Amino acid sequence: MKVGGTAYCSIWLEPDGRSVGIIDQTALPHRFVTLTLTDLAGICHAIRSMQVRGAPLIGAAAAYGMALALKADSSDAALEHAAAQLLATRPTAVNLRWAVEALRRMLAAMPEAKRAEAAYFRAEQIAEEDIAINRAIGSHGLKLIRAALARKQGQGPVNILTHCNAGWLATVDWGTALAPIFAAQAACVPVHVWVDETRPRNQGAFLTAWELQAAGVPHTVIADNAGGHLMRGGQVDLCFVGTDRTTACGDVANKIGTYLKALAAKDNGVPFYVCLPSPTIDWTIEAGEEIPIEERAGSEVSHIAGLTENGDVVSVRLTPAGSPVANPAFDVTPARLVSGLVTERGVAEASREGLLVLFPERAGAAA
Amino acid sequence: MKVGGTAYCSIWLEPDGRSVGIIDQTALPHRFVTLTLTDLAGICHAIRSMQVRGAPLIGAAAAYGMALALKADSSDAALEHAAAQLLATRPTAVNLRWAVEALRRMLAAMPEAKRAEAAYFRAEQIAEEDIAINRAIGSHGLKLIRAALARKQGQGPVNILTHCNAGWLATVDWGTALAPIFAAQAACVPVHVWVDETRPRNQGAFLTAWELQAAGVPHTVIADNAGGHLMRGGQVDLCFVGTDRTTACGDVANKIGTYLKALAAKDNGVPFYVCLPSPTIDWTIEAGEEIPIEERAGSEVSHIAGLTENGDVVSVRLTPAGSPVANPAFDVTPARLVSGLVTERGVAEASREGLLVLFPERAGAAA
Questions:
Q1: Complex prediction ipTM
Q2: Which of A64, A145, A179, B171 could crosslink A174 through cysteines, CB 3.0-4.6 Å?
Q3: CA-CA distance, A57 to A173, in Å (whole number)?
Q4: In chain A, which residues have their Cβ closer than 8 Å to the Cβ of B221?
Q5: Which of A201, A225, A241, A310 is best to mutate for the B interface (most B CBs within 10 A)?
Q6: Global pTM?
Q7: Tens-digit pLDDT profile for residues B316-350
């Protein structure tokens, strides 16, 4: 996607053929800053501190992290160390584990001298695959938007609510939940997006609003509390969200608060779709309750950074000093609340049977 | 309740017998500031800017506003002007209308010379009544907490989730949703409170956390998004919230986001109670959809004030400049999601029939 006229992906190989470029997402929306990462520690820090975030982008970043590590030391010990360091950064997104384990398996079977080159090749391939997957998700999701427009007798815009950021910044390009919206914009299908601010990290207000504004998509930022009221008032036609991990039965872990929106959608007959690249599916688990939920620092709730009138970005305390804070980062939305899973192969019913229609090669492989 | 060892109500008549004292709630939790209001304009500003907020306190403040206006000019014209100014400050809370109309009716029937004194007398009476009502709500709600403790085989604490601030700052004293919690604390019944931060105005993080800390009640502040996840994990035993207006059939308008928590409570079998003084019941309407919902300034979502490391309170921008913002301030929770209405007369089923059991004098009076 373009930023100020220049085309960007959210991660790239620098011209030196070794270093990895990223957009520092913790600086958005107030500053657009790119960083060059040159070692495993830099990648681990970027993932942990959420300079890069979003399940698909974390997967690609982890693959590049393996490549940077192997470039420095291609021994078995270094390979195991890199995998362990990367797996420890964040627990919920399955793409991280998927990418790290795919590279570990592949590289362990190769002679040391070939490992670094192979790791870079595979990391670039993962990034390219992610772009293709998301383009396909966009095209399948666009059909759902067109169907919603038809239900409104063509009286647009189609009002779409989204939570957190599942745009191109959360992937390598295009996004998952926002891919259908960018596709609609390109196809001149009128859309308007309700952007949940998504406390505590405000990825909606900070990143989704920034992406939509950059792409010229009409949107309105709302407090996370507002979505149910808007649905009761008939002001939401569709919900599109992403996911960090989907079970073999169609339960989805996504940013904290997603479950509440799914409940409201169900209560008001609003279709609720989860958009996901298939590497986000964890075929080894059945029930959402088995997904580990990351508990992040309480300071993410007690403090927030914003822009002062003087143009400085400062962090301010919101809670009384001494009041304890809890900060679970994800919740699980059970499959019964999900209208469909929008994958690169089409829209699946949120169930084992539904997923196996699109991914028949997984039959018998699951837990 | 006490602040730093001194007993406070949230509103009081100053020693001059004319001016009205309030706590400037927009300065909390970082500063404790009291203000002296000397005229109608000061009261209207305090209500509109939310220096005073909470349905019961708004009612009491409006009554004092009538008194201040009549003290300056006791003519019929001044009476009508004061009523109109006060009614225009905020649309959702019914206590405001109830207090203003009660005083208007009473004062219009009196000789001008008696009006100011009568208005002060009635305003003080409304404040006193509110305190007594809330003490009774606390005692009825305490029984629900004791029952929850019994369901846990006495293994406390009872984990109670609350949204917004329905504590003593929202009333004249004690609070509505927090009254049972303060009563439990006094009775040594172990409780722990999950405090929704309550975006966009953060009344939970700013006021409820401050009240609970001042009273020594164990509590944890969470993002509004987290409550559903906690309920799915069995970490919430009860929900207590307040309301700004309750219909004759038991639908409740409360701070935006309440409806989402009620849905999650229903989905997880967590009892969801709404605590309300009977002046919050609007017997003239049946369905929640008839309640006017205040749309407040978008700047409440796009900007937030907090405390810097230097101890300054500054406002920072959270959203990208140019992204539109919407800010509905309340939502409606339908009676079907409410386990019971905790009133000063006891706990009613959330229905016309349930309310009429406790308020039989209203039979036939409703719409």
A1: 0.94
A2: A179
A3: 9
A4: 301-302, 319, 323-326
A5: A225
A6: 0.95
A7: 999 999 999 999 999 999 999 999 999 999 999 99
